[in-house]
């Protein structure tokens, strides 16, 4: 029975770059892109997807959470990337500001709050954007809890899923080591080659956040931080069995430094012709 790789793409964890790698590795198979960022809408999307297409899929990916295996006969092999929670939330804020600047003509609360530099506390209380509220726990646990309602029980489920239900996971802060580990577990046929697909405006990324915003980030990521601390220990344990990990990581970094410019040109050219 075919078991497709299922990439749980948590926003702002280098998922776009990782998706580039997955596209190369699973280029010959059927790939299913789940378009919605709402966990509750994923079942209905997959229910509308022809069963024959799902049965032939080698890769299912999108901004969803654990639980897709219940909709795929034969199950799936889960992958995800985690990130230091405070850095992830800061990146999300800068992402909002970047998008608001690029799409300066677009309205709506998301863009307007970014343009006005709405304090994170006010943004959180007014709009209750789930992406900023322990979203790594939400997606790994597969439980779409209401804003501000994460708890120890949900964290325990997320930890258990990461321990027992995910075939592999990576840490953004140790991206290359993560690729080596995933390649080892999944027996990838290709050496992971990549360039950083998204580089946001560096000027925006250096804008200081207020002390109130920093305090709010700490409050919004309490359970994410506990999951991330657990993941770091698990990562150390799982990678300790890989022979010559440091040397392999150094070789991968070196090779990608040399090949990244060419990959970027080739990828952008392909995207241009695909969209034209």
TrEMBL record:
Cell compartments where the protein resides: Golgi apparatus membrane
Pfam families (UniProt xref): Gal-3-0_sulfotr
GO molecular function, one term: galactosylceramide sulfotransferase activity
Main subcellular localisation: Golgi
Keyword Nucleus: no
Membrane topology: Single-pass type II membrane protein
Superkingdom of source: Bacteria
InterPro entries: Gal-3-0_sulfotransfrase (IPR009729), Golvesin-related_Golgi (IPR053259), P-loop_NTPase (IPR027417)
GO cellular component, one term: membrane
UniProt entry keywords in alphabetical sequence: Glycoprotein, Golgi apparatus, Membrane, Signal-anchor, Transferase, Transmembrane, Transmembrane helix
One of the protein's GO biological processes: glycolipid biosynthetic process
Protein name per the record: Galactose-3-O-sulfotransferase
Organism this protein belongs to: Allorhodopirellula heiligendammensis
Lineage, broadest ranks: Bacteria, Pseudomonadati, Planctomycetota, Planctomycetia, Pirellulales
């Amino acid at each position: 029975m075919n078991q497709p790789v299922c990439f749980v793409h948590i926003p702002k964890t280098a998922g776009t770059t990782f998706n580039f790698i997955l596209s190369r590795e699973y280029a010959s198979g059927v790939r299913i892109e789940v378009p919605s960022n709402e966990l509750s809408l994923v079942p209905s999307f997959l229910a509308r997807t022809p069963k024959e297409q799902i049965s032939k899929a080698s890769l299912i990916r999108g901004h969803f959470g654990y639980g897709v295996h219940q909709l795929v006969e034969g199950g799936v092999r889960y992958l995800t990337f985690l990130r230091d929670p405070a850095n992830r939330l800061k990146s999300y804020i800068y992402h909002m500001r970047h998008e608001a600047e690029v799409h300066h003509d677009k309205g709506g609360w998301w863009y307007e709050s970014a343009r006005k530099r709405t304090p994170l506390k006010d943004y959180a209380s007014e709009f209750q954007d789930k992406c900023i509220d322990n979203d790594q726990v939400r997606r790994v646990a597969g439980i779409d809890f209401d804003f501000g309602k994460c708890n120890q029980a949900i964290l325990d489920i997320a930890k258990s899923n990461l321990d027992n239900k995910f075939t592999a996971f990576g840490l953004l802060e140790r991206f290359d080591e993560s690729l080596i580990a995933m390649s080892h577990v999944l027996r990838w046929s290709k050496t992971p080659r990549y360039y950083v697909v998204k580089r946001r405006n560096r000027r925006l990324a250096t804008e200081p956040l207020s002390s109130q915003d920093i305090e709010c980030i700490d409050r919004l990521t309490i359970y994410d931080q506990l999951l991330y601390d657990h993941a770091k220990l698990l990562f150390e344990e799982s990678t300790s069995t890989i022979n010559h990990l440091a040397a392999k990581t150094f070789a991968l970094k070196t090779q990608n430094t040399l090949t990244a410019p060419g990959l970027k040109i080739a990828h952008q050219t392909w995207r241009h012709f695909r969209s034209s």
